[in-house]
Design goal:
The chain has about 140 residues and is mainly α. The longest helix has about 35 residues.
Length: about 140
């Protein structure tokens, strides 16, 4: 893996984490259910744009193979999920918990895994589609 690819993974992971935290805070402060859904939808939209942009960057700028591009893109998504799990664990330290703490600690491993697997599949398909479209053009 190149240093450039690694920085892009870290950057995208930080964007996913920041988006989740910022829009999660907005959703938590929302005055109505409709606004809560709107804030969450905006977070999904931004994350989707970052995801698609990362796939394109890997395939076009870095010229990564589809499988490698998918691995890098899903790694960034997993990094963001790990950051959100860590934030949830830190938040739990300062708030009364209704869940067993060991389950929250398990989120540090579970959230990245359940994020990375579908992200890999979708990124691989998207990267293959980009490759096919570039060959056709």
């Amino acid at each position: 893996m190149t240093r450039r690819a690694m920085w892009v993974i870290v950057f995208a992971g930080v964007v996913y984490l920041s988006t989740g935290l910022i829009f999660g805070a907005f959703a938590g402060q929302a005055a109505s259910h409709q606004w809560r859904v709107a804030w969450r939808g905006a977070a999904w939209l931004i994350s989707s744009i970052v995801f698609g942009g990362h796939v394109l960057y890997e395939r076009i700028a870095l010229r990564s193979a589809s499988r490698i591009a998918a691995l890098h893109v899903s790694s960034a998504a997993g990094l963001g999920a790990f950051g959100l799990a860590a934030a949830a664990n830190l938040h739990a330290l300062n708030s009364p918990m209704h869940r067993p703490p060991h389950l929250l600690v398990l989120s540090l491993a579970i959230w990245p895994i359940i994020t990375m697997i579908p992200a890999f599949v979708v990124a691989w398909a998207a990267a293959a589609l980009v490759a096919r479209m570039r060959r056709a053009a």
